[in-house]
Queue: 2 jobs
Job 1
Amino acid sequence: MELWLLIGSAVLVYVMSAWLHPYVKCEACDGKGKHAGALFSYATRPCHRCSGTGLRRRFTATLIGVGKRRKTTSRFQRATSSFKDTNSG
Ligand SMILES: [Zn+2]
């Protein structure tokens, strides 16, 4: 009986932890939020997995609905609005 109390309180502490701290470091960019080029390492773009935030939502936070949903961005950056306006329409 005491074992179930111990397991229950451990689960409660874990869920509270995910509620208070719903994010962990993004593994793809090591929390930097940007990806450096292989050939020209000074050239960067936002990390496509975390959209440049450097954060990843914890699985438990996703289960309990805490934190913002991840937005993926393309590896290829969109054209700027001025460039798009002159070439479209
Ligand atoms: Zn990232």
Note: The longest strand covers residues 23-25.
Job 2
Amino acid sequence: MKRKSGYIIVLSLLFISMLLSIPSRGQEKSDKGELDWAKLNAGFKGATFVRNTKSCLECHDDVHGKYMETAHGRAFGLNPKGSLEAANCEACHGPRSKHAEEPDQSLKFSVEQYSAVCMQCHQGGERMHWKTSLHKTAEVGCVSCHTVMEKKSQSALLAKTNQLELCSSCHKDVAAKMSRNSRHPVKEGKVDCSSCHNPHGAPGSGMLVKGNVNETCYSCHQEKRGPFLWEHAPARENCMTCHDPHGTNNKSLLVTQSATLCISCHQYGGHVNEYRYNRVSTPNGNGCVNCHISVHGSNHPSGTKLTR
Ligand code: HEC
Ligand code: HEC
Ligand code: HEC
Ligand code: HEC
Ligand code: HEC
Ligand code: HEC
Ligand code: HEC
Ligand code: HEC
Ligand code: HEC
Ligand code: HEC
């Protein structure tokens, strides 16, 4: 009898300790992958954490006000979780005992080194595919897009006031398309670059949030997913065959005027080459879609020619 209750106590202790070791969901996991600082920069050899923000501020008071307006300033300064966050400035700048005595620039990090610093706490989640992302490969780093010493944007500590400006600073060709006649309402702030792209990386091409073009489009244009009784093969395969999601000067983000577009694949067939059918010069320039209204697929029993 005694032995049995002993087992029960041991088992329940094990169970409780298991529960405690499961990190609470949604919380950033501080301290998980703390860096080997000396490996990052040999200047950290022999240095220890000062763990005293005030001592840093004796010489760096100028940066403090703006820093305290940021998510990190508040989280680390006011309500730190774990010892790395409690190190505050040193969570990102490394152990600085030697620096505080003999300050210089020798511990300054490169863009790439800063990414390793940030990833101590921001691994996983949205950044699951960072290692293989085109941005990392192209030597773009966390601090190319985020300014952490100062709050410059409404959210996410972006280096510019908003995403369009941030991304445009490097992707000028895409930004230019965002001013064309037909475009997604990115300028208006209703759709963001990050509605379609994960700038931290994603599986598949183009860093698309849903892994491929069509799944990404369906996430907002659900009705285009179908299922359809009568499918139109190109719509099932790739929306980009006919649309440029960044913007065009044709209606409906079409890559060329509608009739020209259709004729690029449908060169033959009863009426295709007859003027009456393919005029682009109709008031709306609709051409083929005047009659073939269901270009994305039809659910009408007699919609086999996509006319209803
Ligand atoms: C005795 C004064 C002093 C103290 C104390 C001090 N620093 Fe510095 N710090 C400096 C000087 C001087 C520079 C070089 C500035 C320059 O040349 O532009 C510097 C540069 C820096 C830089 C930019 C270059 C780099 O190495 O990345 C950072 C970040 C920094 N200090 C962080 C800290 C932190 C964190 C603490 C507290 C642990 C701290 N400092 C304590 C004087 C000090
Ligand atoms: C979340 C990471 C992070 C924390 C926390 C942080 N810094 Fe920084 N700090 C950076 C980065 C990244 C830079 C590089 C410049 C930039 O991108 O804004 C920087 C730059 C600096 C510089 C150089 C500024 C310049 O204009 O050259 C100083 C000095 C500095 N930090 C001091 C501090 C002090 C003091 C604290 C604490 C009160 C602190 N930092 C907390 C990440 C951080
Ligand atoms: C010691 C852990 C730690 C480090 C190192 C760290 N962060 Fe954070 N970061 C956090 C925590 C915790 C939050 C969440 C704060 C909150 O929820 O208010 C956060 C929030 C953020 C946010 C969202 C801010 C917002 O206003 O929505 C961004 C962006 C960010 N971090 C980028 C960075 C970058 C870039 C670096 C490296 C220069 C970095 N972080 C380094 C712990 C860290
Ligand atoms: C090419 C630009 C770019 C790079 C590089 C980048 N970010 Fe971001 N990051 C963004 C944008 C844009 C957002 C806002 C996304 C949104 O609002 O949906 C964001 C959001 C965040 C957030 C807050 C939302 C979230 O996902 O939790 C964190 C934290 C963050 N980034 C950390 C990082 C870290 C760490 C790195 C480096 C490993 C990094 N970022 C690299 C552009 C970038
Ligand atoms: C500091 C410059 C810089 C910033 C800021 C930046 N990018 Fe990039 N981006 C690059 C580079 C360099 C590449 C590598 C491929 C290339 O040269 O186009 C790239 C690649 C990409 C790709 C993949 C291109 C492909 O060929 O598949 C996408 C998508 C992308 N960026 C989106 C964004 C978005 C969205 C933002 C804003 C949140 C952003 N970028 C901000 C520099 C930047
Ligand atoms: C409505 C969805 C959507 C929005 C919004 C969007 N993109 Fe794209 N973007 C795509 C798709 C789809 C591709 C093609 C990806 C592929 O080839 O697999 C692409 C490709 C790219 C590429 C690589 C090829 C190219 O055209 O240069 C870059 C860079 C890029 N986008 C940047 C951006 C930037 C910057 C923004 C915001 C200003 C943005 N995108 C907004 C859907 C979008
Ligand atoms: C984040 C949600 C979102 C995603 C993802 C998205 N769209 Fe859109 N799309 C919109 C919104 C919002 C509009 C504007 C609707 C309006 O003005 O009534 C729009 C409009 C359009 C239009 C009509 C434009 C016009 O001038 O009438 C086309 C075509 C289009 N999207 C194609 C696509 C394609 C192709 C993709 C995938 C690459 C895609 N969309 C992904 C939200 C999205
Ligand atoms: C074969 C060419 C073609 C393909 C492929 C295609 N579309 Fe379209 N799309 C069109 C044409 C043509 C229009 C204009 C219709 C009109 O004027 O009535 C259009 C219009 C749209 C519109 C705006 C009007 C509406 O019907 O809501 C959206 C949104 C749209 N397409 C999304 C998509 C999505 C998402 C995909 C991929 C699943 C896709 N398209 C694939 C040709 C195509
Ligand atoms: C990228 C090539 C491509 C483009 C562009 C394209 N289609 Fe198609 N279309 C196809 C294919 C492939 C089929 C299936 C053909 C089949 O089953 O014989 C098809 C089928 C059709 C059918 C049904 C034909 C039948 O015999 O059942 C109609 C109608 C049609 N398309 C109209 C259009 C219209 C209108 C446009 C312009 C908005 C267009 N297509 C653009 C490739 C394309
Ligand atoms: C005035 C209305 C109208 C216009 C405009 C029109 N079509 Fe049609 N199309 C039809 C009808 C109705 C059918 C079905 C004919 C049938 O069942 O015999 C059809 C059939 C088709 C077919 C199936 C093959 C065939 O010949 O039966 C294709 C492909 C097609 N159209 C493509 C196009 C293209 C491409 C354009 C633009 C250049 C276009 N259509 C313009 C009404 C139109």
Note: The radius of gyration is 28 Å.
